[in-house]
Amino acid sequence: MTARIVDVEYHKLVDSPASGDTAGNHQWMAVLKSVAAYEFYRRQYHAGIEREQVAELLVLHAQHPRSIRFNIATVQQSLRAISGTGSGAYADEAERLTGKLLESLRYDRIEDIFGRGLHEFLTDVQRSCRSIGEHIARKYFYYAVVA
Prior knowledge:
Layout: H1 2-8, H2 10-15, H3 22-34, H4 38-45, H5 51-60, H6 68-83, H7 93-107, H8 110-116, H9 118-140
Helix pairs in contact: 1-9, 6-7, 7-9
């Protein structure tokens, strides 16, 4: 959901100046508040609302519970707990895709993401999450038909 929220604001983020845009700052403040991240942002950055820092917090921050990276790490831990695999192996495709996405989120910098295009990056994240969800559903929720 965080990827969708940030993606919806993407065009406003790109079209507004980097700083000094009061309307843009209010929009990003509303986004932060909508995902319960405003107070955390203020404690973390000690400055005005900057679009790159908002995106960095909501996409790449390792400790904030609303960031994409935090949630993908939680999915990976949960899948490994269910399957019983260690940190070096993957039990199935959902674990592999989760690990691949998490590594990207760990090593990418917000500058790299903006350089490639935030919208494209968030579209890829959403596509990966859909695929992970489909693999989880197939493995753990669908019943095999016995003839």
